[in-house]
Q: What sequence folds into this?
């Protein structure tokens, strides 16, 4: 019986990795805006960058002391609105605001209470169909949802929310005509990458599992939602490098 000779490890063509200890691990996740209902019937709006989807369930990580987590504990309806890359300034206007009064000590220095976050961000509330919190009218994708499970994470500093999406609203310019498919060539999420804002670059390819028509001659959205990269106030259209 013959056995294969042991394989020899060859020198790798890349540099040795560094062992680092980053303060945060936002390694490129989409930004969403969460609309929830306050105890007095008004509405809170908060940006969040730890969200991902499993089928029609969106899993989110929230700060334990934030108004959003407080609201969802007793009023589970919410709207998950996805801004386009060019809308990052509105997201950043929301970043230092909180719906908690007084401001929790766990909030970053400079954070301040703001009762009307829609106005402060320059955004417009739009009535939802199935839930009380409003959608963000300017966002190309809006998901009406209900938080089915809210629990603490292992550190105790955050809560993990599992929300079931009940209705999806999409700007017609990013939908493949005559289908229920978002055109990925027409839509780019706003991505939060180590506390900097980016959009997606040009398409590299597609999965064998895709059901989205990908041989369209022209995107129905034109340049309406063309990916934009933005870092520290600088922007560039897709195909060009982001300012650093």
A:
């Amino acid at each position: 019986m013959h056995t294969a000779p042991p394989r020899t490890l060859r020198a790798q063509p890349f540099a040795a990795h560094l062992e680092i200890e980053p303060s945060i691990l936002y390694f490129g996740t989409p930004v969403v805006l969460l609309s929830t209902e306050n105890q007095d019937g008004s509405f809170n709006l908060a940006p969040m960058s730890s969200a991902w989807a499993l089928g029609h369930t969106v899993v989110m990580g929230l700060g334990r002391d934030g108004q959003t987590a407080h609201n969802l504990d007793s009023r589970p309806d919410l709207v998950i609105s996805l801004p386009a890359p060019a809308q990052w300034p509105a997201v950043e206007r929301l970043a230092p605001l909180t719906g908690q009064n007084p401001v929790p000590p766990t909030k970053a220095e400079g954070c301040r209470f703001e009762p009307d976050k829609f106005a402060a961000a320059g955004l417009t509330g739009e009535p939802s169909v199935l839930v009380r919190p409003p959608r963000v009218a300017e966002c190309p994708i809006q998901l009406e949802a209900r938080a089915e499970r809210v629990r603490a994470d292992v550190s105790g500093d955050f809560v993990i929310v599992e929300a079931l999406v009940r209705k999806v609203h999409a700007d017609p310019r990013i939908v493949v005509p005559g289908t229920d498919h978002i055109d990925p060539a027409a839509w780019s999420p706003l991505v939060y990458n180590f506390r900097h804002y980016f959009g997606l670059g040009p398409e590299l390819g597609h999965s064998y599992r895709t059901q989205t028509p990908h041989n369209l001659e022209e995107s129905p959205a034109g340049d309406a939602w063309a990916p934009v990269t933005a870092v520290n106030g600088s922007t560039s259209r897709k195909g060009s490098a982001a300012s650093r």
